[in-house]
Structure prediction request, 113 residues.
Amino acid sequence: MIGDWLDIGSVDQITPGNARTLPVRGGDEIAIFRTLTGDFHALVNRCPHKHGPLSQGIVHGGVVTCPLHSWHISLKTGEALGEDKGCVPVIPLKIDAGRIFLLRSAVMDKRAA
Ligand code: FES
Prediction:
C-alpha cells in the first residue's frame, strides 16, 4: 500500500557517492545514501561511535566512512565493520518510478526515539 511509504522525492536529488539528510520532527535525522553503483540506503544519521554525521562521510562500495573517527559502517545493516562494535538503525527504503520511498512506520519510530 502506498500509504505505508513516504515519498521523499526524486532519485536525481542525490548524485552517486553522496547523501542527503531528512530532518524528522522530534527525532533523529535520517541520512539517505546513493552508492556509486546506484543503490540507495537510509540510516539514522548518527554514527554508533560518538554520533558523527554519517551523511558527511565518504561512501565506498556499500560502506560509509564516518567523518569523525573513520569507523566503517555498512549501509545495508547499519553495523560497524572490522574491530569496531555498534549499530545504527536502518530505515527500509524502496525506489519506485524514479522516486525514493521510506517506510513510514520506521520514520515515525524515529520521532519517538
Ligand atoms: S563518531 Fe563516527 S567514528 Fe567516531
